[in-house]
Amino acid sequence: MPVAPAPALDRRSPPFHRGPVRGSAARLGGELRDEWLRLTASPLAQLRRRGLRAVPLAVGATLLVAFFHLVQHVPWGAEVTHDLGGVRADQPLWLALLRTPVSLFVPAPDLPVWGALAQVLIVFGLGELTFGIRRTLFVAYLATLAGTLAARGMVALGPDRILGIEPRLAHVFDTGPSAAVVGLVVAIAWADRAWTLMAVVWGLMIAEVAWKPNLAGREHLIGMAVVLGYAVASEAWRRGREVRAIVEWTDRRGVEVKAAR
Hints:
Blueprint (H helix, E strand, L loop, with lengths): L19 H31 L5 H16 L3 H11 L7 H11 L9 H19 L1 H25 L20 H14 L3 H17 L3 H46 L1
């Protein structure tokens, strides 16, 4: 009598089931990867195609920061730098407004310049590849100007009021590209829907102000808030224009169809 063959053993691994923690981690990793691609895919493609010619603003801004760093450390250059871009809260408003565009490129003498150079090159470059030269310059200046005006308001409030600062800080030179950098990061994060980047930059700035309250940190937060408001309003206005254009086209199309009948 023939004997039935023994059933073959299934040596395949059992199906892998992700637990809730691993599943959440995988989703988070996927979201971060998608966000990274949204931020960098198009800019990197432009850089590969055109090289540094794609970011003339970022290169020029970096060279300006390096130039003013070198110049302000020589006897004759310090006075020239202060006359061109030295902004303080105790200055007349017209003089502060006149110097603010140059102050953006004058690094703080007591901070490492290499960090400022790297930030300007990377963030200005990313902004330039995302928005173009004119809008990048506008956002950078908007954030810097908001911080400059906010400093004057905080001095006027005085140390006894919320957001007020001590009058002695009005005599401190308030220069550097940091407000422009964080403002551009906020604008880029909003444009690319990079919510993780948005949360990180806001969290770091809030933590800095909470851990070590200072004028620069408060200016950064105000500049970021102004830029975010501008980004939201600009997008709402652009979408409104698109909706109105569609409605007008639909109305014209309807009139043409009725006329044809």
